[in-house]
Amino acid sequence: MQTIDITRQKKNLPIGFVSQTTGVLPVTLRAWERRYGLIKPLRTEKGHRLYSEEDIALIRQIIRLINQGIAVGKVRQHLQDPEGTTASTSDWPQLRQQLLHAAQNLRKSTIIDLIRHAGKLYPLPMLASELITPVQHFIDQSDHSDRWAHSQLLEQSVTIYLDQRSHQVNLPAAAPTIFMVTMLAEKIPLSAHLFESIAREAGVDLRWLGRVPGISALTEIAHRHNIRAAVIWEDSEILGPWEALLSRLKSSLEIPVAIGGAFALQHAAKLQEISIPVLPADQQAAIAILKGWIETNTCP
C-alpha cells in the first residue's frame, strides 16, 4: 500500500475536506474508487485516504461528465476514450422507471433501497434533479386515482433516506448557522428538505425549523441563538398581502434574509421590488449565496 506522511505533504487533503469541497459524500468517493477505479488517493500509514489537488480536479471532472449524461459506470471508459461513450449511456431513465414502479406499487422499502443505491454512486444534487424530483413531478401530474398515495409514499421514503444520509455529514460545532422556515407550510416541503441536505453536505449549517408562528418569534430566536441569516421557503401560494408581510419581516430582522421555493421563483419580480433576494433555482448558485452570507455576513 502506498503511504504518505501527512505532516510533510500538506497539499494532500483528508476525505472530509474533499467531501465538503466537492459536495460528494465520502461513501460516494469510496465507491468511485473501489467499484470503478476512478480515483486513486494516497494513504497514510494508518490507511486514511489523502487526496491531492489533482484528485479534486478529477472529482469535479467526473461530476461534469455525469451531469452531461455519462453513467458513473462509463466514466472511466470516457476518460480513457472520450469518443467511445455518449450521453445515451446514462442510467437515469432506468432508475426513474424503477422508482416510479416502486412508488406505484406502494413498496416503501424498495423505494428507499433504490434511492440509497443511487445515492452511493451520485452526489445528492444529481440524485435530486435527475431522479427524485422528476419522479415526484410525474406522479403529481398523472391522472392516476392513487397518485396522492404514490406521492406521499415517495416523500416519506425520501425523508427517511435523507435523515439516514445526514448522519454522514459532520459540520464543525462552531459553524455559523442559517435557519430555514416557512410562513405557511405545516410540514417541511420535500424541496426544502432536499435543499437543506444539499446545503449541509456542501458545508453550510442550514437548519429547518418549521412554520414560524409570527415575525416576532423569528426575530427573537434569531437574536437568542446568534443566527447568521434566515431563509424563508415557500412552495405554495401565500394568501393575503404577502408583500407587506415580507417587507415587515425583512425590516424586523438584523440579519440577511432571502426567500426560496416555487413561490419565490414565481414572484421573483415583485420580491425584487421590495428588496427581498430570491434564491435561484440552481441549487449550487443558491448555496453560493448562503456561503457568501457566512463569509461576509452581508445580504447580496
Automatic annotation (TrEMBL):
Recorded hits in Gene3D superfamilies, A to Z, give: 1.10.1660.10
- Do you know which InterPro entries this protein is assigned to? DNA-bd_dom_put_sf, MerR-type_HTH_dom, MerR_fam
Q: A Pfam family matched by this chain, by name? A: MerR_1
Keywords on record: DNA-binding, Transcription, Transcription regulation
Chain ranges of the HTH merR-type domain: 12-81
List the molecular function annotations (GO) for this entry.
Answer: DNA binding; DNA-binding transcription factor activity
Fetch the CDD domains from UniProt.
HTH_MlrA-CarA
PANTHER family reported for this sequence: HTH-TYPE TRANSCRIPTIONAL REGULATOR MLRA-RELATED, REDOX-CYCLING DRUG-SENSING TRANSCRIPTIONAL ACTIVATOR SOXR
Identify this protein by name: MerR family transcriptional regulator
Source species of the chain: Mariprofundus erugo
Where is the organism placed in the taxonomic lineage, from the top? Bacteria, Pseudomonadati, Pseudomonadota, Candidatius Mariprofundia, Mariprofundales
